[in-house]
Every structure is written in structure tokens, then in C-alpha cells.
Amino acid sequence: MNLFSKIIIAGFAIITFSCDNENDASVSNKNTPTTTVTTTATSKKFLFDATKAETAGNADWIIDADSSPQRFPTPAQSNITASTTESFWRGGLSSWGIALAKLGHTVETLPSGTAITYGGTGAQDLKNYDVFVIDEPNTRFTAAEKTAILNFVKNGGGLFMISDHTVSDRNNDGWDSPDIWNDLMSNNSVKTNPFGITISLNNISETSSNRLSTTANPILNGSQGAVTQLKYSNGATMSINTSANSTVQGLIWRGSSSQGTSNIMCASATFGTGRVFVIGDSSPADDGTGASGDTLYPGWTELASHSRLHMNASLWLAKL
């Protein structure tokens, strides 16, 4: 049984829903929260990037595209109700966008051909958003864009970074997402290795339950439920350096690894007054639907933990 209510009071959204419980450690194709959740939060603005060839090759890392990714998903998100399905929008990340909208938040796309800016006058300048989501960029950030992204985080923004495995150059420009993310972090005008994270140039596939043991972590144990597993379907691990950033921490490691500074599957950090979350595989966010001909993967629903991880991380980045 699913129950859902939404009340708007003085700019605050109060969302309550409940579902039948299940033990997600043994679930492979369901995505049902295990607890009743009541979320009280000011509505936040999430911007999903579509400027870095996120639809190149067989990828579809966008929330909606009727022909090409547009700023406002259609139909309008004001029409979303508790029973709205992810097919309401057309994109491999539509489940993610719909889930955020159901919690009362606003989602937009930064369309292809638009520069990433911060501190400017444009309607989609990063200063107008709380969280910037970039799923597997396939073209390199310009020097100005790297400065914009890092200053956005430094001054309080949330950055959701999704990489993929090495040799995943979908548009054949000589740059794949691990290289692009490492270039952002190592070759910029703001700070070298600002997050204390380096994406490894590797390619692994495995399901791991080797998670940070503390129950207080808001990403692994947030309002959207407990995260107990993470499955990589070809992804890159990462390493962390606490000397570069004392706040960086691994959250889930490879199953056979110690909980050290390498073999990490997802991690978080703060930088300035902002926050960063990094995951090394694009498959867990993929809901399996998108443009005809794309090779997509139903990672969002494959493990109940996948949607919880992405939603908890989204809300943590938005400081909720």
C-alpha cells in the first residue's frame, strides 16, 4: 500500500509517504523504500547538465528530451502527482527527476550549447541553483567552466559527480569521463585536488555491501532509506587523499577491500561551504528508458539501494 500527501505551508513542502517493508539485501528488481518517511524542506533547485555530450553514442544521461534536452522538462513538473511514473518524461534519468519533483523540488536541464557559468547574469547561471548534477561528461570542461563549477561548490553549492569506467569515450574526442573529472580536479585556477578525490583509470563490475559502518551518515542512512549495496556494471573506482581535503571519506568500497583510501565506489567531501558526492558508474542512476536505439540499463530499479543512494546524496548536497 502506498500513501502520499503533500502540504505547502509558507514555502515549505511537507511530504509523507509509506510503503510495505522489504529486506533489500535480497531484492534484485524492486525499488521500494523500507520505512515511512516524512520530509520537511524548503524547495530546492536541481540542475542536470546536458552540455557535455551526455547523449553521445548510446548514452541517455538526461531527465527529458522530446527531441533534444530542453531547459524545462515536458509535460510540466507541476502536473506530477504521487502516481506519476518515470515515463512522464523521456530520459535515462527521468526516474531521478520525477522522484525529486515528488518531494517538492524543482528540476531543470542545462541544454547543449549553453556555457556553465557562476556569478553571471544568465537565467541558468549556477548561482540560481542548489545542486548541479553532471552524469558522465564526455567533453572536457573549459577553463572558465572549471572555475565556475569549483567556485559554485566553494560558495555553498552541491555537485553530484558521476563517472564511468576508463575507455568510455562515447563521442571519440579523446576524453572519457574519468579523464574529464580528473582534469577538473587537477588542472584548474581555484585549487588543485579540491575534493581530495582521484578517479582511477580502471573498469570493474561487482556488487558490494562493504559500506561505511557508521549509522549516522546521511547519505547511507538518509530520509529516503538505508543504502546497503551498490552494484557497478562497468565503472571506475576512486582513491581519496585526506591531506588534500580533510573532509573526504569513502562510503562504499569493493567487497574484498579494506575501508582505506582506495578501491572506493562512492565518496563525499565538503569544499568551502559546499558539498560534493562522487560515484564511479553511471549504471545505478540509469532507469532503463530513453531515446530509441540507446543501450540503457535499469540500474535505478535493479537494487532498492540505488535510488536511495542517489536521492539521499541529492538531498545531502542540497543541505536538507
Please describe what this structure looks like.
It is a single chain. The protein has 320 residues and is α/β, with parallel strands linked by helices. 15% of the residues lie in helices and 26% in strands. It is built from 5 helices and 17 strands. It has helices at 94-102, 143-154, 177-186, 299-302, 304-317, and strands at 3-9, 12-18, 37-42, 45-49, 106-110, 131-135, 158-162, 197-199, 204-208, 210-211, 221-222, 225-226, 230-235, 238-240, 249-253, 264-271, 274-279. It has an 8-stranded mixed sheet with strand order 5-4-6-7-17-16-15-10, with helices on both faces. It is globular, with a radius of gyration of 18 Å. It starts with a strand and ends with a helix.
